Input
Amino acid sequence: MKVREVIAYKNYFEDFLISQPQKVQGKIFKIIEAIETLERVPTNYLKHLEETNGIYEARIQLASNIWRVFCFFDSGKLVVLLNGFQKKTQKTPKNEIEKALRLMEMYYNEKSEENGN
Output
């Protein structure tokens, strides 16, 4: 049973997903399923990024390779997927975090325009 709904904002997540090998795609879907169905998602799957105003990273690992997909919560039970990337260094690249923040801002701007605000 789903406890939250996961959607992708525009095509950023999808573009990232289809560029990944089949095994990685499968692992990403497992993490998304965990986010949708687990009441409490373990931090090794989903972790809040410090000082980002609500950006989380879905954490995917396969062998020694690591991927991240940024997302945020909208209205509590809706998770919005943003950009993803393969992590090659210990520290998450600042430009990827900035991109996620821009996408989140675009999402909220579009949402408020739709609601006539």
Notes: The mean pLDDT is 95.
